[in-house]
Automatic annotation (TrEMBL), chains A, B, C, D:
Organism field: Pseudohalocynthiibacter aestuariivivens
InterPro entries per the UniProt record, alphabetical: AGPR, AGPR_dimerisation_dom, AGPR_type-1, NAD(P)-bd_dom_sf, Semialdehyde_DH_NAD-bd
Function: Catalyzes the NADPH-dependent reduction of N-acetyl-5-glutamyl phosphate to yield N-acetyl-L-glutamate 5-semialdehyde.
Protein's UniProt name: N-acetyl-gamma-glutamyl-phosphate reductase
Gene that this sequence comes from: argC
Active site positions, chain numbering: C149
Amino acid sequence: MTHKIAILGASGYTGAELIRLIATHPSMEITALSADRKAGMQMGDVFPHLRHLSLPKLVKIDEIDFTHVDLVFCALPHATSQAVIKKLPSKIKVVDLSADFRLRDLAEYEKWYGKPHSAPELQGEAVYGLTEFYRDDISAARLVAGTGCNAATGQFALRPLIAAGIIDLDEIIIDLKTGVSGAGRSLKENLLHAELSEGAHAYAVGGAHRHLAEFDQEFSAVAGRPVKVQFTPHLLPANRGIVATVYVKGDPKVIHKTLADAYKNEPFIVMLPFGEHPSTRHVRGSNFCHVGVVGDRIAGRTIVIAALDNLTKGSSGQALQNANLMLGEDETAGLMLAPVFP
Amino acid sequence: MTHKIAILGASGYTGAELIRLIATHPSMEITALSADRKAGMQMGDVFPHLRHLSLPKLVKIDEIDFTHVDLVFCALPHATSQAVIKKLPSKIKVVDLSADFRLRDLAEYEKWYGKPHSAPELQGEAVYGLTEFYRDDISAARLVAGTGCNAATGQFALRPLIAAGIIDLDEIIIDLKTGVSGAGRSLKENLLHAELSEGAHAYAVGGAHRHLAEFDQEFSAVAGRPVKVQFTPHLLPANRGIVATVYVKGDPKVIHKTLADAYKNEPFIVMLPFGEHPSTRHVRGSNFCHVGVVGDRIAGRTIVIAALDNLTKGSSGQALQNANLMLGEDETAGLMLAPVFP
Amino acid sequence: MTHKIAILGASGYTGAELIRLIATHPSMEITALSADRKAGMQMGDVFPHLRHLSLPKLVKIDEIDFTHVDLVFCALPHATSQAVIKKLPSKIKVVDLSADFRLRDLAEYEKWYGKPHSAPELQGEAVYGLTEFYRDDISAARLVAGTGCNAATGQFALRPLIAAGIIDLDEIIIDLKTGVSGAGRSLKENLLHAELSEGAHAYAVGGAHRHLAEFDQEFSAVAGRPVKVQFTPHLLPANRGIVATVYVKGDPKVIHKTLADAYKNEPFIVMLPFGEHPSTRHVRGSNFCHVGVVGDRIAGRTIVIAALDNLTKGSSGQALQNANLMLGEDETAGLMLAPVFP
Amino acid sequence: MTHKIAILGASGYTGAELIRLIATHPSMEITALSADRKAGMQMGDVFPHLRHLSLPKLVKIDEIDFTHVDLVFCALPHATSQAVIKKLPSKIKVVDLSADFRLRDLAEYEKWYGKPHSAPELQGEAVYGLTEFYRDDISAARLVAGTGCNAATGQFALRPLIAAGIIDLDEIIIDLKTGVSGAGRSLKENLLHAELSEGAHAYAVGGAHRHLAEFDQEFSAVAGRPVKVQFTPHLLPANRGIVATVYVKGDPKVIHKTLADAYKNEPFIVMLPFGEHPSTRHVRGSNFCHVGVVGDRIAGRTIVIAALDNLTKGSSGQALQNANLMLGEDETAGLMLAPVFP
């Protein structure tokens, strides 16, 4: 059986990445693509790397006939996403890649995103889309909220440790380095090649990054008490890839074993041998997340490092993994592509 | 039916790329991997991006039992390749990725590669591996010689034009720009990041590049008379990708139509609309080659531009495409992966 | 004696580059900086790499008191430049970095830039700013028109050859590769890091690039008859640097000797030994232009390759070199900085 | 008066950087350059970006006549450096860029560098070359030991804070990102462009990096008690630049004021306004170090970020700054070059 898929907001990087992945999916067919400003264009003109595919023309959302659509990927900006999703026929399954349905506490949403939530009734049914930890809920969900790409990376390093109660919850630092595609295809001076290549810098330092809202929500829920981490993202001169260097207090061997046990049956989480650590280059273009653990020379301190591709495992690959579950397909369908190196 | 595959020289970039592609191939199984200096290691230690795969351990060639091997990919350096292939059981099909069997004239081989050919008897049965132009011969071959990556790019731009007799054969210039992975994983000062990033330079200028031997052989064969082109490769600060800007004398519209007709049924050659031209970014990680044609402001002059990924369509993807034909499989099996962008 | 300098349009890359160079100039003092949209800001906030300098605040042009200004660098967009310069006090010397005064034929200006020239009376006194070939005129000029960066590179490779009559004037091809800073700090999708890194593509193919107007004007003037070249620029994943690979018909040794003789006393043109050729990396951040000559394997064909930094020798360095002449200073003052490598 | 300078080990990146800086120094003349394997070559052939300079030919160290040499920059590998420096005439001043004389405790040297020190008598007179903190000693020294580039960056962020006793000495984490030129021009697989571009990874995780020996020595000396920090370096796809993100416990405003006071008269340390933080791009090619301070959302936690160019302020620029002091010149001579951006 082939599932009919619509992608809303197909002219951004996450939309294009969804199409790349679905192109070799055995049981999905893309039947509609929307892009507001680029409506009327062919996808191959907006993203020439997809020229070889036969794809529907880009249209405005209003022009889509949703009658036979089984699942919608919504790759629109936050705030827009809410407004669009609440108008969709309620029988359609939805995977939202925006931030709109990630935060269960509506006050937190308003605090971090600067305006009230406009679809609070939908928030109630939304499931947080970190597949490895919400698998059953996602399988049964109608609406799944894709996680932040940085939030996913940090959680893969930390959730099992917090759950196991083996690290100091008040002393967690996530120093994260990310490629630039996470910022999307937007026209901003700080995303120009001339402003980014051959260097690095931190941004949103000191607790200003919105993905902290996800860390706060998820880590506190896992711990059963409030947990606040420090989080400093840095921008790399690279398009894809996130590496999170996480500093914790706890025994390195216990930490490694806890993570290895937690992930031993996960198809996409690759646990490295103790003492080894990952590189963004080795997950690029794939849905894999590599996790490594190293003990510090100071006893009782451990460094956990996780790496994934922000557009794949951090966003569109995760979305497809969730869609597979929601549609009753093999969770890994269309997602076993090996990373592209070099 | 599953074909049993061995890859010799698996510790280089083309070996790794073969494994990446075969990882999702429906009817191939890798049963042996060789790597001389890295024998005894796991592939995931040599190339951590392949860590998620179950692969045979790297061994020396002598340790491989070829009894049940159906096809060998030989990704060894030239000269070594000859010596190894002539010792293989004669029933095994071979796709060689080195330069050893590309040149039908043994004197040309000696001239360009600096030593006599050591397996002249095998040269006689080798088929030149440019799939789109040698498809029938490849399907029937036991030994196929993969082309040079630059040689493939230039030929996709030019062969149909030379065959059709619509361009001046004495006035062809190929100005080519290539990523660095074509030079392999070798330890050379000029391949260091610090020597390459943020700049560009020509190399092998004036007729010194060995892929000229392939241009000479193939273009002369197609034309039925000697053809010598000018060819200047340049090194880009990029890992994958070749773009060849080809200057010819001939009518641009006729040239575009001739190429479009030649490639209209080709699954991997994407002909762009007249006046458009390709980018290496839009073929990265894929087996596609994009070809564009633009007329110059000077009447009777045309620029043909072709772009492909040197490791995929220019090398390992081409090799797999040929292997599919040799094994009676669908030519596109394992090769329809969309390019990775951005 | 210290010359008082104003820079109009200081918030772009060429403006910042002028400040970088003037920072160590022995006899220039920057007394005014304009930037329309960023008026009121400190230069160190617009360009943090200049934070260590004491510089005037950015203001609107109308706010500048030009009474004591000796020379103005005008780094404004074309069309705007004309309008501004014609309002400046006529005693002030002006180096214009835009395209507005490069073309002596006003009809050519209108053809290439799409609107009539608004300061035709000034065009009459403007001197084309390719220092090495207009040195005397520049020394005496009030208004000097900086050249296009690509136009400068191509001319360094070709002017002495055209003047000497030793190459075929109807068979010149300039295949040029340029870094992205030449496009300025403008918000365009095709200048984003994610759209540019790790690849290359041609643009303005077939005779569409405006710098062709300069090639046409200058080469025809040197030859004494119309000369039209082919010119294909390519965009590199690099910020600075242009390398022009120029294909000509003529004797390589004669060509090398002609260029070497032409440049033997030039402080900024470095002629490489016969058979060697340059890299953009070896001129980065400097006012030097490296020129090399290689003979092709086809007799009578020669490749001339020139490399320079588009922001320095191709733009702001050239502008300062011209300003030095106009002010009676040593032509090399502030410009002998060695290239930055790696 | 012109000082006669010899550079030993001139064929590496730090040697080339010294020449770049000295090229515009008002009172230094390079009279000898050594390079063991490249003896007999011209510097312009080893580093074509220096082609425009008249420089002595590369020779072996034994061939240098040190009679009239005033100061030697020793840019040799560690261990080699000791052996060479102890043979130099004792009247010659020496700035060593290797690790050989950085550690006052010879046992620490042996522990971190794996072999006994071979010139212990010289270690006694060596001064640690962090100019801003050892200025008087350096002015009087015959032998100055250049610091590690990472060690310098971390110390600029931390020394005044440790001296002032305003941060928790047991809770310091330095998460550092560095360009690749710090590893030199050595032929290692992990320095190839194809292994580095478009990604990032940590290395020497958990306390394995040799620059920790300098942190231990210096911070403990400043604090008057043992101080051990955590330090994780990461490799960036960039040639130049280090940014250190330092996590401390202490009041952010007090920390900012302490650093601002400490550096208010320093010509090369640029303190950013509270809440701002630096980028490697804004110091590239210069001797400046930018330092910023941001308070975390968790009270009592502060992030200090320092950025510098590893080849300039982190190595050759620091060396020249020290040499200026040792020779009685203005400390900033030859070093006021503005950063190169973009």
